[in-house]
Here is the input.
Amino acid sequence: GGIETGALLHQGSIGVGEINLANYSKVIVYIGIDNSDVTINAHAANAANRLMLTNSDVSMVMSPAAEQIVAYVDYAPCGWAVTAFEIDLTGVDYNGPVYVTYDTLPGTFMLFSSIEFIA
Here is the structure.
């Protein structure tokens, strides 16, 4: 199934509900990222540039603790054109609250357009 979010985030996460991720093989997150100099420079300076599923809200946290991260994929700036990033859920048996979040530095913005869970 899919979730239409339309959420613009600056250092934060968005809750998508209680989900048994063992029922899915992957999740596709459709995002847009601003192409400002701040974002491009922050991405280049950041050791971790991950689009993540986390088990808790990590708003205003640059990099969540390892125990909060359920699965992730590295992302690259793609501009405001909505781009799909696929998070592999092979072997993930987490069941509980799921949040989508990303590593960022202050001054960067990401638009979550939609999220699709694939069985």
